[in-house]
């Protein structure tokens, strides 16, 4: 995988772009125009450097952004990663941060029955080392009520965007079967990409 920089839900593969990071870190509200201008500048730079492609994570979030983006670049594919709501909810509520070192952990242990006869979903917790155990804090807004409301808002915003790309034949729906170890090979399969790690271990 290429190194990726995450900028508040927006991932640009390749090298980091200081100006974008600064803008997002310094102000919470970034207008669509600013984001799209910086994005198109970054894409042009990448093309000049010979980058073969890019991945945007969590962007566009609105129809308006999707429409402006369409005028800037032609996306090959949009992947809608879906996780069962009970697992999402548990993962959000289980988030913990170490108040001393800032490490991020998750105490949720997810083990739920498969849907429609599907396989069980198991996602182990990401537990802190002993020295962090007594210093864990959770975000005040990671409560069931608030997370459910955030999910509702997310669905209201994302459904039209999903429809936008579905109508263009570009939307791939992908139901996450569990954590990264189960999901990664299945996602590569869905994308018709050979897993470089599997190849290596097969050759060893
Ligand atoms: Zn710690």
UniProtKB/TrEMBL annotation:
<dbReference type="InterPro" id="IPR033690">
    <property type="entry name" value="Adenylat_kinase_CS"/>
</dbReference>
<comment type="similarity">
    <text>Belongs to the adenylate kinase family.</text>
</comment>
<comment type="function">
    <text>Catalyzes the reversible transfer of the terminal phosphate group between ATP and AMP. Plays an important role in cellular energy homeostasis and in adenine nucleotide metabolism.</text>
</comment>
<dbReference type="Pfam" id="PF00406">
    <property type="entry name" value="ADK"/>
</dbReference>
<keyword id="KW-0808">Transferase</keyword>
<dbReference type="GO" id="GO:0005524">
    <property type="term" value="F:ATP binding"/>
</dbReference>
<dbReference type="GO" id="GO:0004017">
    <property type="term" value="F:AMP kinase activity"/>
</dbReference>
<protein>
    <recommendedName>
        <fullName>adenylate kinase</fullName>
        <ecNumber>2.7.4.3</ecNumber>
    </recommendedName>
</protein>
<dbReference type="InterPro" id="IPR027417">
    <property type="entry name" value="P-loop_NTPase"/>
</dbReference>
<keyword id="KW-0418">Kinase</keyword>
<dbReference type="InterPro" id="IPR000850">
    <property type="entry name" value="Adenylat/UMP-CMP_kin"/>
</dbReference>
<keyword id="KW-0547">Nucleotide-binding</keyword>
